[in-house]
Amino acid sequence: MTDKSAERIDLEERAKAAGVKFAGNIGDESLKERVEAAEAAANTAPGTSDQENPVGSTEQVVSDEGPVLAEVQTAPATEIPHVLVISGPARGFRRAGRRFGPQQVTIPVKDLSDDAYTALLSEPALTVVELGKPQGD
User: Fold this and answer.
1) Does 17 score more than 60 pLDDT?
2) Domain parsing of the chain, residue ranges
């Protein structure tokens, strides 16, 4: 049995953090592509942004007396719906009665049967990112 390189271990940790399911024998390049796609999907998912001052943060305001920290008043974040963001290989791939290609497809989990949900999450040919998973699941 061969030991995993530090790069591979890091890549697998990133995959787990991004919610990417993968087979143990997947190549480094394929896994890297899936991880990068999942991280990109997570960064562009509804309810996420790169705002500098999220709810409850403070910002620096300059007054006549110098810098002062002030509470940022913004609307509370809305809950992210429970969805799967899925992309497949360039040549296309079918699973759970749906076709997937390189374009990301967002499917509300409530629209999937239990079998379809399980099939999509466990399919190694697809990059699946689960967002907005309800607490307690």
Assistant:
1) yes
2) 21-137
